[in-house]
Amino acid sequence: MSDKRAERIADFIEPLRVRPGAKVHLERDFDPRFKAGLKKRDGPELLRTGVSLLAEYQERLAAQDTYGVVLCLQALDAGGKDGTIRHVMSGVNPQGVRVNSFKVPSAEELDHDYLWRYAKRLPARGEIAIFNRSHYEEVLVVRVHPENLIRQKLPEGSFGPDIWDRRYREINRWERYLTDNGFKVVKIFLNLSKEEQRTRFLKRIDLPEKNWKFSAADVRERRRWDDYQQAFSEMLSATSTRWAPWYVVPADRKWFARICAAAVLAHTLMEIDPQYPEVGEEARKDLLVTRRALEREAPAGAHADPYTARHSP
Ligand code: ATP
Ligand code: MG
């Protein structure tokens, strides 16, 4: 693997990363229209490069059994989570990737602690789990609509005004625990502007084949835009850590958001640098014995080892 590729990707995503400890003010610090000087026509080629890099690294990740990856995707409605997942994962082996979408919690989920349902969907070693919405809803929608908190059946005295700081702390520690135990957590926020959200909602109304995607609830949530911006800003400030950083991906241009998301995931995998397991001396000897046995099974007229015959010059 050339270090150049890794360096280029690290440089590309650096402006998107939320520095641990930084006090984020979303609207001031991150421009949803930023495109790093790229042109839309550069998009397909760059995405292809990113996707093939991901395919290469995901294959290596799947071959080892030390590390797994959790990619958390957060966005406001019409932010492009679904399209991002579809495009970014288009080249990877579906056996190694699981997408988990988190909706309004069920009765069973509410009967457990708030991280339970997310813990249940964690990847195995070798896998990538994509969280389409994630445990961060617990400090976003639940914060903007505190009635959600009532439904969570918390003990008396445990939901005072300090609950959000406590949740940030609990989430950071949980992610630290996962990281220390081989599960890398990486987090992407698709940062959409209010005007682009309006445009996308209108498109969903204007095009009959998009109507199913439109929900009146989304427009209700839009009225709480400023509260969400505030909740996102505080959450980003409190939970971008050295071990599990946040990346704020400019989302007004879908083609650019997809390149960024692919780059963030590729960077994460490159940092892990998964290696194909090496076969030991003894196992190698066993393989050679088996090989000889298989060669002896060759029917009359067939090459002893058709693979070698086909591939040697
Ligand atoms: P899409 O609309 O593209 O299909 P989506 O992720 O918006 O995808 P929906 O079924 O529309 O899916 O919405 C899921 C809803 O569940 C969101 O409004 C979200 O805020 C809500 N939700 C997710 N987690 C929680 C939670 N822990 N508590 C309360 N509401 C939650
Ligand atoms: Mg929705």
UniProtKB/TrEMBL annotation:
Any GO BP: polyphosphate metabolic process
Organism: Streptomyces vinaceus
Protein's name according to its UniProt entry: Polyphosphate kinase 2 family protein
All residue ranges annotated as the Polyphosphate kinase-2-related domain in the record: 45-270
Sorted UniProt keywords: Kinase, Transferase
Domain of life, per lineage: Bacteria
NCBIfam families: PPK2_rel_1
Key word Ribosomal protein present: no
GO molecular function: polyphosphate kinase activity
